[in-house]
């Protein structure tokens, strides 16, 4: 009898230690070390002149392409570029999403696309884990707004608009309309046929980061994927919003209050679907 009591005591202690370690791991996972630039200000520079001096500097190219919402192939096609005065920070400091949103602390994952700023932010329990530029739907083929969930994904697929268009690292969010985020050319403005274009490295990250849906035997949705929110409107007939950074570096920053405003209408459904996934995962592992 004493040996049984001793064994149960040991198991309880081990379980308690394990739980504490798990909580610690979760806490540590939220702590992301970032390098902040000393100064955040911008100037407008001639593209050819700037590239002549910096074309081989990959870290600068990464930041400049993000700020100008373009990719390396299209960078040289722009007449001028918005250039930061200080390149010493991580790319998230040159993009508008807030680094932490406590309102989202109970949301395991959510991917948010801002139409006005042409950027996205991936949050995990309210902490910005990844951010980058995007080129969304053009004026006559606007990207739909609202709450979506990631569905199926494919490393390589063809567009529903043109079967000659090859889409890499594609993750569908609206199955009937064929809308998804994927790698494709970023000319530096909303230019797609409603999809959300990304840099290749960003598309690869989100491809692995987000969760696919889970279907039952009848091909009906059993568990939805990662929530995706698309919000805001782009001013197509006005200069690109990020050009205003030269006058005011915070002019297009997205506030914590704005994120809360955009997510509040969908929070209940997001948490409900999250619970369904958690219950399914727990049952599947038993």
List keywords for this structure.
about 290 residues; alpha+beta; four-stranded mixed sheet; 13 strands; globular; disordered N terminus
Estimate the helix proportion, in percent: 25-40%
Please give the alpha-carbon distance between the first and last residues.
30 Å
Q: Helix-strand pattern, N to C?
A: HEHHHEEEEEEEEEHEEEHH
As residue ranges, the low-confidence spans are: 1-29
Largest sheet: 5 strands, mixed
Could you tell me the mean pLDDT? 90
Query: How many DSSP helices?
Result: 7
* Rg measurement, Å: 22 Å
Number of strands: 13
Give the structural class.
Answer: alpha+beta
What share of residues are in beta strands?
15-25%
Name the overall outline: globular
Could you give the order of strands across the largest sheet? 5-4-3-13-6
Family: Belongs to the YkuD family.
Protein name: L,D-TPase catalytic domain-containing protein
Pfam families: YkuD
Organism: Flavobacterium chungnamense
How would you sum up this structure, described in words?
By secondary structure, the chain is an alpha+beta fold. 30% of the residues lie in helices and 23% in strands. It is built from 7 helices and 13 strands. The chain has helices spanning 2-30, 47-54, 58-67, 72-75, 200-209, 256-263, 267-284; strands at 42-46, 80-84, 110-114, 119-124, 127-133, 146-149, 153-158, 166-174, 179-183, 196-198, 214-215, 221-223, 227-231. The strands form 4 sheets. It has a 5-stranded mixed sheet with strand order 5-4-3-13-6. A 4-stranded mixed sheet has the order 7-8-9-10. The protein has a two-stranded antiparallel ribbon with strand order 1-2. The longest helix is centred in the N-terminal third of the chain and has 29 residues, at 2-30. It is globular.
């Amino acid at each position: 009898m004493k040996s049984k009591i001793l064994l149960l005591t040991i198991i309880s202690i081990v379980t308690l230690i394990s739980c504490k370690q798990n909580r610690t791991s979760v806490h540590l996972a939220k702590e992301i070390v970032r390098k902040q630039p000393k100064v955040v200000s911008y100037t407008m520079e001639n593209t050819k002149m700037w590239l002549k001096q910096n074309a081989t500097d990959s870290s600068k190219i990464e930041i400049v392409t993000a700020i100008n919402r373009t990719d390396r192939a299209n960078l040289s096609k722009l007449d001028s570029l918005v250039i930061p005065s200080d390149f010493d920070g991580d790319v998230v400091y040159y993009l508008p999403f807030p680094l932490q949103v406590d309102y989202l602390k109970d949301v395991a994952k959510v991917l948010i696309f801002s139409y006005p700023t042409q950027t996205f932010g991936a949050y995990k329990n309210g902490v910005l884990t990844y951010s980058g530029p995007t080129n969304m739907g053009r004026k006559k083929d606007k990207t739909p707004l609202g709450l979506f969930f990631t569905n199926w994904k494919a490393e390589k697929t063809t567009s529903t608009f043109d079967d000659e268009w090859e889409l890499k690292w594609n993750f569908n969010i609206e199955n009937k309309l064929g809308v998804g985020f994927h790698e494709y050319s970023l000319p530096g403005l909303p230019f797609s046929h409603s999809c959300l274009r990304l840099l290749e490295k960003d598309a690869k990250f989100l491809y692995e980061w987000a969760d696919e849906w889970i279907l039952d035997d009848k091909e009906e949705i059993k568990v939805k994927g990662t929530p995706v929110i698309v919000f805001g409107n782009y001013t197509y007939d006005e200069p690109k919003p990020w050009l205003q950074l030269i006058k005011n570096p915070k002019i297009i920053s997205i506030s914590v209050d704005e994120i809360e405003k955009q997510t509040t209408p969908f929070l209940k459904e997001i948490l409900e679907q999250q619970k369904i996934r958690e219950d399914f995962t727990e049952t599947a592992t038993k």
